[in-house]
Amino acid sequence: MFEWLTRRAPASRTLRLRSRDEAGDAVRVAFETLAPDVDTYLGQAAYLQLGYFETLSHLIAELPALGDKEALSRAAGAALRKHQALVVLIRERGGDPTELMFPFREPLDEFREATQGVRPEETMLTVHLTAGLLDDFYNRLAVTYGEAGRKVARILQADDDREALVAILLSRMAEDPQWQSLLALWGRRLVGDTLLVARGVLRLQSADADDEKRVDPMFTDLMAAHSRRMEALGLAA
């Protein structure tokens, strides 16, 4: 479903607390041959945030409780602010945001459709987990792109207000324990498609063991962060 992604690539940084220069130099050397060009990186990142905003906006209409609607509106607003900040950055660099995002519209819309739940609670979990994992991933790529990458990292690290989604999901599970097993299963189902998006932007050679060795630590870190998000909800990853 995501053949388009195999033509592009990023870079990464570790979760260990090291100096910015030390981490940046190590990652840049390890991933510079796998990274996509900066316009591809910016276009993908901007369209992902727009997709999160769209998904959350649709969810608002599906929830009857005013408190839930307000909570989702905060998360949707945070995604929109990140999208708008990335659009501003693209324009500052002389690019056309629509042009840069257009190649990713169809495949990323397919990804969102494939990971959208039947129930609003499943879709809330989808946004929390997939956006968290992919924000982490694009944040790690940022070190490859100099000042533009540092700006992207600051944008992606801004408050996402997705804790509002966590609060709603915890409330649902407290009201009905059956939600726990259902959401645990759904959370595990999301991982494959999400990692496919992340791996697809890397220019990996299928038979190149060295490429795999370079990216394995990053994906191990991404999965560890995913597991922590699941555990914070009382769900088994």
TrEMBL record:
Domain Ferritin-like: 41-201
Entries under InterPro entries matching the protein: Ferritin-like, Ferritin_actino
The name this protein goes by in its record: Ferritin-like domain-containing protein
